[in-house]
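Hey, can you fold this one?
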Amino acid sequence: MPKFSTDTRVDTVIVGGQIVGSSQVYDSSIAIKGEKIVAKGQNSYYRRRIDT
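Sure. Predicted structure:
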């Protein structure tokens, strides 16, 4: 999954959550465009932000 870039434009960013993988858990934000998660990381341009 790509990381955020300064030119990434998305619909929603979920900030302050955790991503759970098969062998690790880490703090991160995710970007959603349409109905798909399109990036993870810290920065993006967004229409809506959700803080967890």
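The longest strand covers residues 9-20. Let me know if you want another pass with a different chain boundary.
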